Amino acid sequence: MPILDRPLIVVSTLVYFAVCLGLGVWALRRTRSAHDFWVARQGLGVVVTGLATMAAAFSGFVFLGGPGLTYRIGLSSLFINLSIGFTPTLLAWTLAKRLRLLAEVREVYTIPDAILARYGSRTASGAAAVAVLIGTIGYLGAQLLAMGTLLTAVLGLSLPVAVGIGLGVLLFYSVAGGMMAGVYTDVFQGSLMILAAVAVFAYAMSAGGGFGQVVRSIAASPRFGRPFLEPLGSTPALTALGFFFVFGIGVLGQPHMLNKFYMIRDPRRLRWLPLVLGSSQTLCLLIWLGIGLAVPALVAQGKLAPLARPDDAAPAFLLGFTPEPLAGLAVAAILAAIMSTADSFMNLGAAVLVRDLPRALGRRVDRELFWGRLATAGIAVAAAALALGYNDLIALLGTFAFGAALAPALAVGLNWKRVTAAAATASIVTGTALNLLLEFLARQTFFPALPKPPLPPGALPTAVSLAASFVVLLGVTAWTGRRQPALPEDISAVMEA
Amino acid sequence: MARTFALVLLALAALASLAGFALGSPLAPWLAAFGGATFPVALIALGAARNGRLGGLVIPLGALWVLLAGGLAAVLVLPAGGPDVAGLPLATALMIFVLVPIPLLGLGLLYAFSFGRHGLREEDLDRVRRLRSGGS
Fold first, then answer.
1. Complex prediction ipTM
2. Which CATH superfamily is domain A3-392 in?
3. B positions 76-95 inside 8 Å of A (CB)
4. B2 touches chain A (CB under 8 A)
């Protein structure tokens, strides 16, 4: 049934847009300085910070791609989420406190700012800014395409018009209210995502006859069978372990999550961050598990035709098996997941252009608030144009892993004084270049003479890049660390706290 | 001492992960599993150590390593997942019902209740605030 025949879904989409626009107007009145625009005046509580971090981290992939991946490869897809048990505490212990305390002693608004403060190196900070810009264009372009595809289905529009409408709403609140709007829309969007995920999970289990019946149906089905439920199934062990490594450790280099830590009002409130962040992420992931198990069970029970495209798993379930109000809530939640990630990237990309790259070149931009707003619009329009015109480029850049570039310089460098600027720069450049090179060789079809990356079957290029980036950081530190000059007293105090 | 130990673990984890993911060998999955279990423990130890010591965190972090290494080893040792538990293969049930919720709650509560000793001490916050320079 076309979505347009179900008016509540269209209404919920329009109401969702109206709330985002309303929050944009509210934030516009409160955004008077660059401090407000980039870090929301550093006035957030721990629940707001946790929800905003979750909403920025979880894109539409959790709601659409995840269930589709599970339909395709079985429960081995859960290796992507397996690290969720320790990542909130890992983030808190290694980075949240250090980044927040850096913001106490220096004017630090972005991740390249933190690298500049820690290492005193414009080269290291500039390398980080370039990595953030590359990833931002890719991730933002991918989110805008996903948003356009969803709006095309809901409102029956062409893709460019759908992207334009979604982009218009995003631009309105992001340009007007910067991170102030970004964070509070993230809270609204994150709450919506959790509500929809829990409700859809419950409904999915009920539709399949309960958890026991769901797994029994899958195991007895000739199409799926017990391998679907096995931890590896048909997935190579190196792929599954690569998911675990990239999502478990790469999280330490995700700028759209990390820069939320600057914004918490009182560093002592970080005490509760792991529990707030971890529980919100776990609740949200219920939709992945719920639809990922229910759809193959319904196919096995003969209640749903086998899917032609695995990515149709979530739409097929939501449109075919849930009541209209719940489907409307879920569509709004999917839009929320996409837009909460996109607005964070718009802010990050604008900061690179207005703040990070000029500082790396030894310059400062006057009227940062004005230029920040302009750059937010510019980066979003550029990403949308690239997404619509050069889909292949966006698909390649969308695989870029921030973690490979930034995780070692941040997670080790902010906790070990001996790490030098040379080591940080070498690690950032290695992670960025190796990740792009290996992904390009793995995916490109333009130059048939070029070899595939020389990796074992199933190994993820990003996992190799991330591990290599750590090895380079530790190796160059061992080589240059004895010549490390004493750190400034304030940075020392942050690292000893 | 704890910091040095954490750095040694980190170096071993990084080398094992690189060898596991980049070089194909029968040992590759085991190297990757060792790296995957060791990285988070080494990094948390590095971030939580104070004056080179971990104090009461040694046992919980050791338990985390055993849990992660045991869970990943179970996946590699039981190719078909082992006997069924609650309708799921044992290794899958471990992933869903043990490897996610237990560290999530255990580490989250540990962080919250040890915050005054291993998170942020009042005297450290005061020292940082006294050094506020106001510009970068």
1. 0.95
2. Sodium/glucose cotransporter (1.20.1730.10)
3. 76, 78-81, 86-89, 91-92, 95
4. no
